[in-house]
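Teaching note: in complex prediction, the entire set of molecules is handled at once rather than each chain in isolation. The prompt given to students was simply: 'Predict the structure of this complex.' The entities are:
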Amino acid sequence: MTARRPVDRREFLRLAGAAGTAGAAVTAAGPLLAACGGSAAPAAKVTGHGTRIHEYVPGPQPASGGRYGGTVAVVWSDPPNSLDPAVGYNLTAWDAITNLVFFGGLMAYDKQVGGPVPNIAAAMPQISADSRTLTFKLRPDVKFHNGRTVTASDFVYSWERMLAPKLASWATSYLSSVEGANAMMNGKAKHLSGVEAPSDDTLVVHLTAPDFTILNALALPMTAPVPREEVERLGGAKFGQTPVGTGPFKITAYDSASQTARFERNEHYMYGGLPYLDAVTYRWGVDPQIQLLQLQKGDADILGSGIPGSQAAHVLATPALKPLALQRPSPGNVWLTMYLKAAPFTNKLVRQALNWAVDRTAIGRITYGTNTPWGAPFPKEIADFTPTFTPYGYDPAKAKSLLAQAGFGSGLSVTLTVNADDPYPQIAQLVQQQFGQVGVKLTLNQVSSNALGSLEEAAPGGGGGHLQMSTDDWYQIQPTPADEVDALYTSHASSNYNGYASPVVDRLAAQAKRTFDTTARNKLYAQMQAQIGEDAPYVFLTSTDWLAGVSQRVSNYQYRGETYSYYDRMWV
Amino acid sequence: MAVVSTGASGPAGPGAEAALPDAAPAAAAHPGQWPGTLIAGTVMLAAFVVIGACAGLFGSPVHQDVLHGLTPTGLPLGPGAHHLLGTDTLGRDELARLAYGIRVSVIVAVVSNITSIVIGAAVGLLAGFFRGPVEAVLMRVTDVGLALPYTLAALVIAALMTAGLSRVIVIITVLFWSYPARLVYGEVLRLRGRGFVEAGEAMGSGGLTIVRRHLAPHVFTLLVTYSPLNAASAVVFEATLSYLGAGINPPTASLGNMISDGQTAISYAPHLLYAPATAILLLTMSFLLIGEGLKARNPDLRRVSWLGR
Amino acid sequence: MARTLIRRVGYGLIAVLGVAVLAFVLEFVVPGDPARAIAPRAGSAEVLRNIRLQLHLNQPLAVQFADYFWGLLHGNLGTSYVQRQPVATLIGQRLAATGWLALAGVAAEVVIGGALGVAATMFRRVRVAVGAVNLVLLSLPQFVVGLALLLVFGFQLHAAPVTGGAGAAQIVLPALTLGLVGAPWYAQIVADQMQDSLASPYVRTAVAKGLSNRYILRRHVLRNVLSPAITMVGMDLGAYLSGVVTVEVVFGWPGIGLLAVNSLQNLDRPVIMGTVIVGAVAVVAFNLLADVVRMQVDPRTRQELT
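The expected output is the structure of the full assembly:
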């Protein structure tokens, strides 16, 4: 049991200062209110006997109200690919990296869908007039699990380690707007010129051009600080299994042979009073159906990947099981990509027609609580976002007339390449039948997800024997449409494989990148949404949800699509 | 995520015939006659073939009825008046899918069974009979065939051929042939050890005659014993292939991919698993009965036990 | 004898090498890009390019081939693309569990199958029942058998642990699953060979001579039954040592089967090669061992070794 820390004057100032600094961007409405003892966000029940945490902790609220003690067991099917924050990316790894061994970086995402707020940084950064230099002051009380205090030079070391080509990190492009990052990525520089640590508690970051997404990148664990001495002591391979970080839990055991890992409370965690749990254990190699059984019988507390899609309807329809399923928003989309370089998809009318030909409600029915019908780009729920685009609905008559207008009144034959993972085969079969009703004959070709990725990459734009249509999805790790726009919709976007290029979108995207004010920026994204929706490069199908599997023994289960389960604030 | 493999521990292991009543001494040998088991088995198999051929009579296996073919909560319907065997997770009629699935699986079972056994037997016979370098080479190839990881091989073949029945048959043949090869090889050696080949040579018979007259009957027995199990394995193995994405692609139904889909629905729609599993059971039984009957017809088999009971 | 043995071992190594080469080449035929498996959310094309560079994925097949086999000669199995751990470590950690399960599974199927086969031969009345049992076991997918056992003994009766691990208590159900699924094959072989032997002239003579049933069974029948059974045990041990994915998944048994399947989906080539080689060595070794044992048991087959 840790003693509660009183809020001292310095803390109070920090919380007050979080409300706004010149040029600072994002939503952080809560801190002052929370510091005054109230909570603005809708919350799980806070018991009267629960511990009150007096400091505001970023993330879905509340963080207060818990009891100390106990262990929670989380089950997974896959092992974490690596717990090194610069290398880990699969679900099991990401969950541990974002909420156990590490917790954000300089920043951390706030509330259920809010943007980044200060975390290891003491306050929002000072942003220069040209928006290209950010100066961060660090909290003085953040310690690594080995006891050493985090300093600004730790960030410099960590980012250089991440950008070095040898590590082959997947996340290097998240720091690409930092000066000198590209030189490092190409192996041309050994040090990151755009970052300085003039003192232990000051970090200065120079950007090549204004880019508001840097604050999101700084909230993700790839940019979290790691202690050099531990990396060197353990070596790369071992650090990937037993990393040392600053998060609410430290890893005390990683056993590949028995497929388990154990994380225990960090007694010196920066947010005093948290976490409530004594320990969290991971167990992997468990089949999803067996996971559900274990949850039902009390042998597991949380399903790492949520309720499996194939069991979701059953769970929601069975009164005894329903309390185990918790629905949470999860920002992402599912769609059918149309490859634009060849007929018939060069014709916008055809693309729009297909968007009207899909009965998304039916898809929602068979994907049971994990997908919401949504015929538009971008996830359905975005903070501070007012859409202007009306999503596509189901109108077969309109679809047929558009097809006729485009010259395909007598029908159309297309091949859809389908990802073999659930739920794409099911969705594809539904769509096949629906398209049939408007005269579009869809042939299904099922391939493994990895193979699909290669096919998409090999022939950008499709056509000529390559892909015509494929199933695709995207899950955001930033709480802003920029995540999708920069990855999919600008003409040089990294995952833009169908050749979509709109000068309007490109222009708006570049402008949005420079706009630190959230409201103004999201107006731009609304315009982009309308343009992309109208251009219909994809057949937009659904926006994703998350169905968490949580035992009734666990209280205050919080979850965000970008960072997964929050273990610091749950109790048993 | 889809559930992992079904079927035996990979391709078929070796086997012998089921101990069914007709193998009792009284029914030992019926050379020239048609034993009851053979008739029963053939009739059953014929019934399956007829169902498969007339699958169209059962309705559409691919028509999805998301509105009326599912319960209000989106779950498959159980067996009832409108759908005799209920519906699957996409609201398709299970009975129609079963009929079409039987068609596909009977073809897969029969064809891939024949091809894998013919190739395997040929390799085993040649290796066992000719000895020397032929044997060495053939047996090493067989070893490679046994040791090749079936998942990798399946994926490779799947990548090289277009989806369909032929692809499944090719994959099963490639993965299954080495088992009968090794069994036949072992049997030929055993027969050599018992002097069959020498006897034949002493009688002045040429190589092929020896193979045909002295080795083949026993090998045939072994194969007839092994064959039904092989066929049954092929049908169930197709479920593993479906999971890997190398099987019969949806929306076409096959008993294998119906089992693969049915496994995930065990807790709320068990009929989706029972239906194809029962079909496989009966299909296997028909193969087994045919196997029994063929053996009973073989005059070289005297199965009377001298232990006198 | 020793010479033949050495020759067989040599052939075995050739077979393993053949499998390794074949598997290596085949990996390149399977569509997919290992770099994408490591960086599914690659922020830019540069990231993928760098990863390919670091993993030497851009080099021509021949060069990668030479690199890999040169490393193999030095006992280096490479490093996993996905987990960044040495392949030898990854496999080594799971080898013991795989081995125990293989042994237990084979023991189970031999015992169950053998019992069924003997019962069917010796006791006429149970023949139909045994046949029916065989039929059912043959038609049930492995996953279903395992799940049923887990549900009944694990979750309902609480007689077996359900949360995974590799101990003595945890091996019972997985081994039983393998045993039940594999039993029909052994039952068939045992029944078949027993009936064959019991009908043979040797046995007729022995009965006429007035020898006891037990002696007859042991002397004349057992040998014939053991011979093909040993062949099958050899094949099964080899197969199980390559990993039994279904059982591992249902029971959370930490074997190399799941490692192999996952590595294939991720195109984690070093791990694929590692598991393939381990599997190949197991298959070849145990087939050879089976041949040797069978030779001892049934000297009539002694001349078969090439």
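Point out the following to students. The CA atoms of residues 99 and 281 of chain B lie 15 Å apart. Chain B has ten helices and no strands.
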